[in-house]
Specification:
It contains 5 helices and 9 strands. The chain is an alpha/beta fold. It has one domain: 3-Layer(aba) Sandwich (Glutaredoxin). Strands 5-4-3-8-9 form a 5-stranded mixed beta sheet. The two termini are 28 Å apart.
Length: 154
């Protein structure tokens, strides 16, 4: 698959929201979506990123954004992560990595001299028509909500 770029249609997927309802990315047509991919629940960087989006959530919503996070963690892991940090948005469990593959965020990583396959921390800003408006692949985990707001102003 070719790498996604700005202007491409966002690949669709179905997920179960925090409220137990089944949703599809197309349910968000007419709204803007911050779709962020992160490696793992309850790790330092991922916790900073989720909490930044939580703390900036009202500001993001006031600007018409919905927030959805995706990782390969289980739904049970997500439930605990959401409860522990009072996250107001849905986290999608992609244990079969189909969404990760569709967005091109499953790839080779390097850490401490070791190479391995994993989730490449990336955020896609999707416009009201379901197209990719921005791709942020150098995520500032501590200030991610502000980073997203600054990126959309460019």
């Amino acid at each position: 698959m070719d790498k996604l770029k700005t202007g491409d249609p966002a690949p669709g997927f179905t997920f179960t929201g925090n409220d137990g309802t089944t949703r599809n990315l197309t349910d968000y047509l007419g709204k803007k979506v911050i779709l962020y991919f992160y490696p793992r629940d309850n790790t330092p960087g991922c916790t900073l990123e989720a909490c930044s989006l939580r703390d900036g959530y009202e500001e993001l919503r006031s600007r018409g954004f919905e927030v959805v996070g995706v990782s390969a963690d289980s739904a049970k892991s997500h439930e605990g992560f959401i409860a522990k940090f009072n996250l107001p948005f849905s986290l999608v469990s992609d244990t079969d990595k189909s969404i990760l593959m569709a967005y091109g965020v499953w790839g080779e990583k390097k850490f401490m001299g070791r190479q391995f396959m994993g989730i490449l921390r990336t955020t896609f800003v999707i416009d009201e028509q379901g197209r990719i408006a921005k791709i942020i692949d150098k995520v500032n985990t501590k200030n991610h909500a502000q980073q997203v707001l600054e990126e959309i102003e460019k």
